[in-house]
Amino acid sequence: MKKIGIAMVLALGLALAACGGGSSTGPANISGNWTATLMNTDGTPALSFTTSLTQGSGTATVTGTNLSFNPSTPCFTSGGSQTGTFLLSGNVNGMPTGVFQLTITSATPPGNTLTLQGTVTNNTIAGTWTLSGVTSGCTGTGNFTFTKM
Question: What is the assigned CATH class of domain 25-148?
Fold first, then answer.
């Protein structure tokens, strides 16, 4: 009888562990299509763009493609590169949380760099941005919101 009781307790423990082992439902990452709204420090709109982000499997590396500014900006007229990092700190129901950094470097005209640093919560990234460049008017700083579409 004692052995049956021990076996039942172990079976119940395994069943409970399988049911309530956490809220994660799969690997969380930030891959997908995103839209960004950048505001100047005085609260006026600065830039807006869309991009497709891809997080490397099992890595913190993020790359971007299909960058499109709307409206267009003389700071980023064509081409360029997007690289960054995402350090996952949590995964709640498949939604990532963590620290995000993305750097966009212009190809034409060369020498302009937009850096975003923020925190990921669910399908939103919020933080600060800095634009430095050689093209007239291509400098600034402020806050941004990046939303997964």
Answer: mainly beta
Q: What is Dmax (Cα atoms) for the chain?
A: 84
Residue 40's contacts (CB-CB under 8 Å, 6 or more residues apart) are: 46, 140, 141, 142
Tokens of 53: 């982000």
Q: Is the pTM of this model over 0.85?
A: no
Q: What are the residue boundaries of the structural domains of the chain, listed by start?
A: 25-148
- Beta-bridge mates of residue 103: 83, 115
Q: pLDDT tens digit string along 1-26?
A: 454 444 443 343 434 333 333 333 34
Could you give the CA distance from residue 81 to residue 103 in angstroms, rounded to a whole number? 8
Beta partners for 124? Answer: 121, 147
Give me the amino acid identity at 112: N
